[in-house]
Amino acid sequence: MTIFARIIKGELPSEKVFENELVLVIKDLHPVAPVHLLIIPKKEIPDFQSLTVADFPLLVEVGKIAQQLAEQFKITAGYRLLTNNGSLAGQTIFHLHFHLIGGRQLGALA
User: Which of 41, 53, 80, 106 is the most buried (most CB within 10 A)?
Assistant: First the structure.
């Protein structure tokens, strides 16, 4: 069981920002910007590559929530919504999640 699965089950503490039946949103413990949230699907999916067509509505939900949170945290002028897929991309927790990052000038990726 991943750390995110344990957080979703309430076994570990987190700073919850939003929750519904599909996702949990928490503040990142090690933020890289003033706003750094993790949008975590409750369904245990190891990474983006493991998504199936049946999971596509979940991606739409993640997008809608990201837009709402960007407005709530006043970062609509510029933010990133990203996921790392696999260890070569920097994924360290193998439970699909998306980083919503903003609140300052963001540098180039790669």
Answer: 41
